[in-house]
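Dear Dr. V.,

Thank you for agreeing to look over these. As mentioned in my earlier message, I'm a first-year student in the group and I'm still getting used to reading structure tokens, so any feedback on how I've presented them would be very welcome. I ran two proteins. I've put each sequence directly above its structure. The first is here:
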Amino acid sequence: MKVGNRIKELRNKRGLTQEALAAALGVTPQSVSKWECEVNFPDVSLLPDIAVFFGVSIDSLFSMTRADEFERIGNRINEAGIISDDEVKQIEAMLTEQSDGREDRAAAEALLAKLYNHQASEYRKKAALCAKGALEISESDTLALKELSRSSGGAPHGVIDGSHRELIAYLKGLLARDPENTDAAAMLIDNLIADTRVDEAAMWCDHLEKTDDSYRPLVYKYSVAEARGDGEKALAALAVLTAVYSADVGALVAAADIYFRRGEYEKAIGNLLKATELSPAPKPVEYTVSAAHIAELLGNLDDSVVMLREALRILKEEWGIVTGERVDALRREIKRITTQE
């Protein structure tokens, strides 16, 4: 059993609220919420107090499987802004020390990739703010413009420099070893289309159709047809996708992406909100946040704020998350939009 779930189970057995447990232990209700959501651990000095309070041993309360520990680390990365160097070293040490078998090693390497990508993403946000600051002072600063483009995911200069040839070659090698890896095939098609290698993308789309019985082959049929300028075939694939998979969350989100690319923003919003509605609890907030951003593009600022507040509600009521970077980011977005009104 996960540590957070164990604390929650013991708290519920005693009929206590998070506030009551927090008061008994001398911590904030937000701390208890983070424990139960597996975002943070209690401070080491609190372990005896928690064990005594619930009448259990420390070992019983805090024994964790490797899978539990990996999940805790993943949750920590999800909820953090820039993670300190000291904590990065701690996470690296835990993942290295706890990974013996093949499956554990793969899970640990994936978490390390998640950690490093998270840090890179957070630093890119910081870089974008610095570049914008430079441009506020000197609008013609070419270095600031270049770094703003890099940090914001802007289009690269030049087709060759912006190509994905190394990733494409790696994915082809991966699929040679594991032809039924549908995620790799889908990623390969995306990158081939991005590099305008449409005929190759079409070939791999045929491969995906043979190995993936979900909605995804239809999405890539649309993308290949769109890249070729064949509007009729693209619309035909979209029609089948929306008709056959109208209650599939993944298909709804994929169709929303297509609608967005087509400039059909209202349809994109509708699909994203429906995907949230059909998702089991605890519901994801990403679809609602994306809908809010599209509403802002349409100039519907009030609707955008309502959606962002709904995302905050989901985090609080379904995930038990009331503090942390995810909450802070949504609050910053609400403040930014309401300032425009």
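The second protein is here, in the same arrangement:
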Amino acid sequence: MSDTPSSSHAHPRVTMSTIAQQIGVTKTTVSLALRDHPSISKATTEKVKTLAKKLGYRPDPAISAIATQRWSIGSPSSGRVIAYLRHEHEHAKSTQGVYLEAASRRAYELGYKLEPFNVDEYPNATSISRVLYSRGIRGIIVPPIANPNSKRVLYIEWDKFTAVCCGIGRVKPQLHTVTPDTFAHTHLVWKVLQEAGYKRIGAALMKHNPLAYDDLLRVGASTAAIHLLELEEAAKIPIFTGEFEDKKSLINWYEKHRPEVLLGFNQSVWETLDEAGFDLASETEFVSLLTPEGCEWSGIVHHYEEIAVKAVELLDSELRHNQWGLPKNPNTMLVVPKWNDGNTLRVKPELHEGRIVSIKPHEIEAPALKPLEEPEALTTINYSR
């Protein structure tokens, strides 16, 4: 005997019309309320959701699919524009450019047109909101805001829009975010150095003023690695956390400790010491936590293009599911890094999904580098996946 009830005994399906009739509103109002649309009052939305739960309302997947297909019809020229918020800052130019190009390409593939929108051209968040809304723009990508004083994006009338952050800058609205996994990739570098046999590791991690979120992640991951990986020699060298402009303190720190391998925030650490007259190629090796792909510096490369693509895809999903405003519980999607072999570290790891598969010797073009005290540390180290 079948467990499925016969049609004559089945309860009629609860629809939006059912809810609308019992509350005394239109079907459109119910539809909008179930999607938390800002045009519906909180009281009405709560009433609709309460009754829907009581009656056991469930959306019809077939109807939802039709709605999604209807939403997908059209081309970028039809006016489905996504705004890409940008601002003027020297540290934002290169990163925003990479994000913008990759995001534009993915947006086009999904049927949107991505348009840069310079927030610095407007006096306040109200004017930004008004212009975006009047242009019929609903979707917004927020790339990293490098200027700590550019806080107007925090006060945009977010309930009128659907938005996703593409990376974390100095100023960040409480939105769903796609960003590099700074803590994991910092720990990864320490693990590579430990497994390769390096002992006297010195970290020049710098800090922003005011303090940035990624400063905490870099220093936190480094402190944890030194302690939990039991790096006794590295523990004797204090982590340098001076400000980027304080070159004198960085020079004094290096002069005092002379690590066998230097772990830097980026290549500016090497450049500062090189300009100060240190013969770095003959006395130390270098690995960067932030390096362009294909350059001479060994270290971590962020998947900026993948981050931008994932951010657009996440925004597309939020738009299709009619999510508005600031989410109650913002989620963060972390993107694992990749490794740039470069020419400043004599080992190179093979990574798989952010994990070390093996560590191999890496010949570099700096013949003056002294040999490691433990040559066996450079034999290939294999790890199970």
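From my reading of the second output: Residues 76-180+303-335 form a domain with the Rossmann fold fold (CATH 3.40.50.2300). The chain has three domains: 16-59, 76-180+303-335, 182-301+338-382. Does that match how you would interpret it?

Kind regards,
E.
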